[in-house]
Write a structure and sequence with these properties.
With 268 residues, the chain is of the alpha/beta class. 34% of the residues lie in helices and 16% in strands. It has helices at 32-40, 49-54, 66-82, 98-110, 129-132, 141-145, 174-179, 181-194, 211-215, 233-244; strands at 4-7, 43-44, 86-90, 117-121, 155-158, 162-165, 198-202, 221-227, 248-255. It has a nine-stranded mixed sheet, with helices on both faces. The longest helix has 17 residues, at 66-82. The relative contact order is 0.24.
Length: 268
């Protein structure tokens, strides 16, 4: 498979700099029936296969999905090895297939039924997950982050172990919303209710604004997505050093055109 290449050695040892925020270990698990009930209460995600195929969202039967299965296996290994739960998906610029990769990775994770995963569209400047999934209902994650509205009102579940927190509205103060202490509290609440093993966050491009820079201090690691035939070497090193100064680097994915070339350039 020539679509993706993961530079796995990037995650073997944490880079010097501030460590990712660590949440206190829970002393007791929530009652399984309460967690299952919370997932069952979420609205179910319904997708049109034709729309998914047109947006390069791959099914398990598609040979190209194997690249995302390998990426899933690597991420799950890091989760078990380091206890990493919150993973930001970042890129230096837009149009490199970041959002497409995140959705395909999320579906790959959903095929491991013993794992619970939640994916958030935290690119509050140019949200794209809902469009790629073919969802037309309105969601405003920015408004929820700035108020007391529960984040789960924007979550749609795929089966009983995968959920997408969607957004269709651009936020005027996206950086300030993501950097708030209240955002950390809202995410901790989601962890307590749904007990996800992994949480994925689609972030705005790092060279566009400081949204991701502030938020990275609240995650355990970041996966960097770049386009092999488009991103210059010096930019790869720059972004890696920026990310490593804020959190752990889970790896660098070089998207080799097959997805990025055909995706909408408005997508992250």
């Amino acid at each position: 498979m020539e679509t993706l290449q993961l530079h796995q050695d990037r995650s073997r040892a944490p880079r010097p700099g501030p460590m990712a925020y660590r949440r206190p270990a829970k002393t007791a698990k929530s009652m399984p029936d309460l967690v299952g009930a919370a997932w069952a209460d979420l609205e179910e995600l319904t997708c049109d296969p034709t729309t998914l195929a047109a947006n390069r969202i791959l099914t398990a039967r598609d040979m190209r999905a194997r690249a995302f299965d390998h990426l899933r296996t690597r991420l799950v290994h890091l989760h078990h090895q380091h206890g990493w739960k919150r993973i930001a998906i970042v890129s230096p610029e837009g149009g490199v297939g970041r959002t497409t990769l995140l959705i395909n990775l999320a579906f790959a994770l959903s095929r491991q039924r013993e794992l619970r995963t939640i994916a958030y569209d935290f690119d509050l400047r140019r949200p794209g997950m809902a469009r790629l999934l073919g969802q037309s209902s309105a969601h405003d994650l920015g408004a929820s982050l700035g108020s007391d509205t529960p984040l789960e009102t924007h979550m749609l579940r795929q089966g009983m172990n995968m959920a997408f927190a969607l957004n269709t509205a651009r936020a005027d103060r996206s950086a300030e919303l993501l950097h708030r202490l209240k955002t950390e509290a809202l995410l901790t609440r989601i962890e307590e209710i749904f007990e996800p093993d992994l949480m994925l966050f689609d972030m705005p491009p790092m060279l566009v604004a400081d949204d991701a820079h502030g938020f990275l201090r609240t995650v355990d690691a970041a996966l960097i997505v770049m386009q092999a035939d488009r991103t210059p070497i010096h930019q790869i090193d720059l972004i890696e050093r920026q990310v490593a100064s804020l959190t752990n680097v889970a790896g660098i994915v070089l998207n080799r055109c097959a997805i990025a070339e055909h995706s909408d350039r408005r997508d992250g």
